[in-house]
Write a structure and sequence with these properties.
Layout (H helix, E strand, L loop, with lengths): L12 E3 L6 E3 L16 H8 L2 E11 L7 E10 L5 E12 L4 E10 L19
Antiparallel strand pairs: 1-2, 3-6, 4-5
Length: 128
């Protein structure tokens, strides 16, 4: 039984077996490591139909002749009441003279999962 044939709660998560990230149960490709998780044509079509609701990109350049800078990247998500739902440090590092880093944040949204139609019974009356 694949995910498309059983009821799935929107937002339900599981762990990617490759990178161990928490991902949506309905995904067939991990958005973190891009490994394929299962063959499910409906889930793949739905994931391809995802659109970018938000994309922000920025570059930090370290000025020459200054001491190294340390950095940390924090992502926080808040609900409609302004309450913090999650907060994670996703990367840390250092910039030496004349180095640069590009940071990109994107939020993808997908159409709702449609319920799969039940398979028709065989014409000869035998059970599967």
């Amino acid at each position: 039984m694949n995910v498309a044939t059983r009821g799935v709660t929107p937002g339900k998560t599981r762990t990617c077996p490759h990178c161990k990230a928490a991902i949506l149960e309905t995904l067939s490709i991990c958005p973190g490591c891009l490994h394929h998780l299962r063959f499910d044509q409906e889930a793949a079509k739905r994931q391809v139909a995802a659109t970018s609701a938000l994309r922000v990109e920025g570059i930090i350049r370290h000025p020459p002749l200054e001491e190294a800078w340390e950095y940390f990247v924090v992502i926080a998500v808040r609900n409609d009441r302004g309450e913090e739902v999650t907060r994670q440090v996703v990367s840390v590092g250092a910039l030496q003279g004349t180095e640069k880093r590009t940071f990109t944040l994107s939020v993808e949204v997908m159409p709702p999962q449609s319920a799969a139609a039940p398979k028709p019974a065989p014409a000869n009356g035998t059970k599967r």
